[in-house]
Amino acid sequence: MHEDHQIAPLAGVRVLELGNYIAAPTAGRLLADFGAEVIKVERPRTGDELRSWRLHAGTTSMLYRTINRNKKSVVLDLKTEEGRRLVLELAKHCDVLLENFRPGTLEKWGIGPEALNAANPDLVITRISAFGQTGPLSPRPGFAAVAEAVGGFRELVGDPDRPPVRVGVSIGDSIAGLYAAFGSVMALFQREVRRGAAQPGVPLGERVIDVALNEAMLSMMESLVPDYEAFGVRRERTGGRMDGIAPSNAYVCQDGASIVVAGNGDSIFQRYMRVIGRPDLAEDPALASNEVRWARREELDAAIGDWAAQHPQAEALAILEEAGVPSGPIYTAADICRDEQYKARNMVQRLPVSTGEDVIENVGFPGIVPVIGGTSLPIRSLGPDLGQHTREVLTDILGMTPEQIQAVAAGEGALL
Fold first, then answer.
1. GO: which molecular function terms (predicted)?
2. Which terminus has fewer CB within 10 Å in the chain: N or C?
């Protein structure tokens, strides 16, 4: 465990998470990782749908335990008047509210920004949706798969002679969650700056953070739009390559394992070609610039591929490292779990975890990023059981009696 386990930059910040799936819960996880108290509101009986995603055993998935770590779970039914009343009561005691319902849902329930602002005029309200809270597409539902397509990302993933493919994780949700966490902290910073300067509070319009999944993906697309607008350039799928950058690709080694090599810097390229036994390419003046190398990418990849096929992965990487050519193995989960670099920075943390039926000991979970204090901060707790903290939160924050809490539970069909 991390020696300085008290490092918690967001200690004292309380967050109310009304989020399901991945986007808003990712934002909540990031805030919780660095010390915020995150209260996750879940529906009775089933909770967040993520509890059953990639469920290999038991009743609660590792995906849920990972994305909802360091949080508290409270069961409230937002479709009931009492559930919504309690949300407004909790909002009075919070700094940030996270939500990722379809636009208009909170307003329909009577707990939209105006109602939340009336309850707490300092509350930061961070909203994540497929297409944002405004504009002609705002009412549409949508998951990350759609946002990745509309944001321009999906068009560039895969090989040029095949249809676009999806990466193996919900990248659109995760990037939106990053923006939501950043937006929340930014708004909190603005609030504190105004308080320190004895200025009026931040108006509601500036405390509503509006994150659209498709826009989060668009923001990752580098110069896709300006290249098209200025020069009529349409980016295309390039497989394992990066458009306009060569040589940079994955190559299969003698033992069947693959490596990634990024030898596209001008001086790196010359070292790279010499170490693979092709000084002719290193000295070719026509390959001195990246633009020309991209035009001859097939020739370069063929030469590199021939060299890689003559060496086992470990040997190839050792040769490239000695020559100062950026390279690395393509890791599986097993490789990550035994990697010394991840171990040195506490980036795979081992904890016992419940499936809801059994406890599995010593399971690795990804550490907390970014690093503060030399190694990843420790995970304080994995994603909680459904309703695990309902009594604690309603008692400690709202001062409710056991009888009042039981009445709420009975009305919502929840087991507390």
1. CoA-transferase activity
2. N
